[in-house]
Design goal:
alpha+beta; 2 helices
Length: 68
């Protein structure tokens, strides 16, 4: 994934799930969906490294399949 693509306004994707009040985060990388916690770390890198924004990711949710 290039920095240009990582900086795109539609990267990452946020959605909601009925099991949680927290936003679910995911990224499309190499034709695959990457979810939290990996997507959250990459998103934090994007916000801090590219845009210089102090960003926390502890409020972001993982998909239900990762709760086990």
């Amino acid at each position: 994934m290039t920095l240009e693509r990582l900086a795109h306004p539609k990267t990452p994707e946020f959605s909601s799930i009925p099991e949680s009040d927290r936003p679910l985060i995911r990224l499309s990388i190499a034709r695959a969906k990457v979810h939290a916690p990996t997507a959250a770390v990459i998103y934090q890198f994007r916000e801090v490294g590219i845009f210089g924004r102090d960003t926390r990711v502890d409020h972001l949710e993982q998909p239900v399949f990762a709760w086990r």
